Amino acid sequence: MIARWMYWVAGALLIAVIGAAIYFPALRSQVEKARQLTEKTAEQARRELLPVASPTSGEPKGKAKMYWGSPTEDGTLKPVIVELPLSSDPVSRSKQLLNTLLAGPVDPEARTLPSDAALLAFYLLPDGTAVADFSEALGTSIPSGIQSEELAVDSIARTLEANVPEVRQLKILIHGQEVDTLAGHLDLTQTFQVKASGLAETPKSTSPTDVIRKPLEKAVGKVKEAIKR
Amino acid sequence: MSRTLLKFSQLCAIFLNVGVVDGQAPSANPPAAPPGPTDQQKVVAAQSPTNPPALSSVASLTGAQVDSAPVVPHAGLNVVVIDPAHGGTDTGGRGTEGIRESDVVLELAAQLRKTLEAQGFQVVQTRETNDNPSFDDRSARANAQRGAVFVTLHVSSTGLTGTARVYVPPDYSAVTDTGGLIPWEHAQAPYLSLSRKLGDLVQSEIAKRFKGSPTSAQIAPVRQLRTTAAPAIAVEISSVSVENRAALDRMIPGVAEAITRGIVAFRPSYVVSTISAAPIGVTPQ
Predict the structure, then answer these.
(1) pLDDT tens digits, residue range B119-132?
(2) Average pLDDT, chain A
(3) Minimal Cα–Cα distance from B86 to chain A, Å?
(4) Mutate which: A144, A186, A194, vs B, most B CBs within 10 A
(5) Neighbours of A121 (CB within 10 A)
(6) CA–CA dist B86, A49 (Å, integer)
(7) Domains in chain A: boundaries
(8) What pTM, to 2 d.p., does this model score?
(9) Over the stretch A166-195, which tens digit does the pLDDT of each residue have?
(10) 3-state secondary structure B171-226
């Protein structure tokens, strides 16, 4: 004989289970929305704190060779000469170039980097390694694929190669961190050798990060400090 | 800590020529003792492209079977490891029409498997369902094979619709430690020239079938290829941005056929030594 109170308990449990089954999916979607909102807000705050364009007033204008996508040849880059204020300091000059690259060409189809990505910091190490730190949007907003990711990195490397002779190799960080890939395909654990014939990874490293580990750690520390500020 | 252990076990997978699947080292055949000079020389010899590592049959046997099994020499390219990229929560490229890269590459892999098996190849897939093994887990599947080539499949978000491109790794230094062993992070280094040859052969077959495709393989530092100790290429078709999925589906048989033909043409170039290679500690006396 089952006691009457046990029926009541079983009924209450059943109602609780049904209620949870209805409520939990709704709760989950709300949490997901809140997470996305927080991410956007953080990215927005970072961009407001760190102005995208470096100060260029008072600097003489010069001609720079920018590498954007070719509108006629699929999957290739095409150099475009643009006139912009160019500093004689290699770091400031590199920032000016990369910000121009991010701003994009007149033809949006020729863009190689996402429009909402930002250059957070740039360092040039004594051995000629350029460390370019971009916002997360560089990886999250770029069209996924080997071709698009390769063009993005190639456009950065070739633009620096054409205009900043001090740069020998390039290391790309995302929000101050070394990441495995740009957007699931292109290897960002390596440094890219900057040379006229295109990109190739540095042949000198004994491990993917050993060559630049110490100077890179310093650079990452600086980036983190800048973000905290 | 666990990541360090995983890396160590994967490194051992190259050194010892045993399989590491899904991030776990097989417990079937643990080395009974540290390698002696003779064993080590065999393992080192097995690292060169002409003496690639691992007997796949040995890797899949139990410890008891390994002890008693004769070491079967392989004379050439036998195994093709197909890697349908992405999967699980990582859909890869996603088109406006809801086309997902992870789905398309899985179908391409199934078709490629059929055409390769028809040519007598043994096929290993890094995933057959909608899961997402790590880069290292995928490489481990290939690194546990002997006489294998590795093909990772992708669909781009950009590019001329109806074209396909083959990517091969850039120059890596052939890094070896004092024992002549290859670090996991540079597993691809000894196979670069073979990868490029395979890439050119496959790309030329693709160019015959898909107009507008390049005629030779392109160099790009694709992450998946770096840790793969075998001739390895990435094949990317365009694109998930097509308006109709049928356009991609129509490409699949032709791409599979082209890859198969390229691998068949590559087969004579990949001479696998008949030197017996077996895991340290289980080498027949």
Answers:
(1) 999 999 999 999 99
(2) 82
(3) 8
(4) A144
(5) 22
(6) 35
(7) 1-49, 57-228
(8) 0.71
(9) 999 999 999 999 999 999 999 999 999 887
(10) CCCCCCCCCCCCCHHHCCHHHHHHHHHHHHHHHHHHHHHCCCCCCCCEECCEHHHH
